[in-house]
């Protein structure tokens, strides 16, 4: 499908935009959304909600059990119908609320578009089955519902393309501002001291004083003997 290939290209652009945005400084003040953008989104959501309600009503009136088809085909068709109804009642409203909270969010816009793309494929299968096995009225009403879903899918694809282009321009401006801010910062001066440091004075070890020699005792034979008295 051309739309599917377009979505793939847009998704690649989206991921590049998100990656680039993550490398830019964080801006706490979110950019205001223009009145024109919000009005456009509200109109798209109103058309989508109307298409969703019409599809749910027409699917509830399908009489698949009366179709001239085998049991396996009926079972498969009933499963597809129930899947579409669950999506329209649960998943789709949640995505719409998320987009309302952040009208120009690329991830939320793509998420809704991808869901519509899946819905279109399943609903298209139901239309073909209704044309082959159902009544003429069932085929015509479902085919009209398919056109409503396709119109919404195309509208969100175009909006996603515009948002991606706008984000790329914004990111380009942020890059220029970042480069200018970096260029305005003076480079840090680094002082290199290449003089050799004065070596610390060497500590001289004090010599221990030699011990004084002890006096030697005289030999026993040299010692004076006491005088004896002379005999008469």
Primary descriptors:
single chain, 232 residues, mainly alpha, 0% strand, disordered N terminus
Strand content: under 5%
What is the fourth-level CATH superfamily of one domain? Alpha-catenin/vinculin-like
**Any idea what the shape is?**
elongated
CATH fold description of one domain = Four Helix Bundle (Hemerythrin (Met), subunit A)
The level 1 CATH classification of one domain is: Mainly Alpha
* Radius of gyration, CA atoms, in whole angstroms: 47 Å
Overall average residue pLDDT: 80
CATH architecture label name of one domain: Up-down Bundle
Q: Residue ranges: pLDDT <50 for 5 or more in a row?
A: 1-7, 16-29
Largest sheet: none
Number of E-state strands? 0
Task: Give the helix tally.
Answer: 5
Q: Report how far the terminal alpha carbons are from each other.
A: 163 Å
Roughly what percent helix? 55-70%
What order do the helices and strands follow? Answer: HHHHH
Determine the structural class based on helices, strands and strand pairing. Answer: mainly alpha
